[in-house]
Amino acid sequence: MAIARIISALHCNTMNRISPKKLLLSKWTAVQPIAKQKHFLVSKLILPEDLSQPIEFIEIEAVYSKKTKQIPWKELRDSNLWIQGWK
């Protein structure tokens, strides 16, 4: 039982596995609130000018206040900053 908790704890400190193509409308919880907001929705993928280049930025929208912010999508991979889903 203790080993399962250790493995689970180690897994929580790894990177979230996500694909930029599946980010639109995905739900996220900020580990540390951002401007008193915890729950966010990916509202827009910011496409590069050269469409052959990969997506670098997304727009997240706070669920409660509806305020938006652009962030690099790879920031969502850091489980010290973001948890996938609303917790």
Q: Could you give a quick summary of the protein structure above?
A:
By secondary structure, this protein is mainly beta. The protein contains 1 helix and 5 strands, in the order H-E-E-E-E-E. The chain starts with a helix and ends with a strand.
Describe this structure in words.
The protein is mainly β. The chain has one helix at about 1-10; strands at about 25-35, 35-45, 55-60, 70, 80-85. The chain has a single domain, classed as Thrombin, subunit H (Beta Barrel), CATH 2.40.10. It has a five-stranded antiparallel beta sheet, with no helix packed on it. Strand 1 and strand 2 form a beta hairpin. The chain is globular and about 35 Å long.
Q: How are the elements arranged and paired?
A:
Layout: H1 2-12, E1 27-34, E2 37-46, E3 57-62, E4 68-72, E5 82-84
Antiparallel strand pairs: 1-2, 1-5, 2-3, 3-4
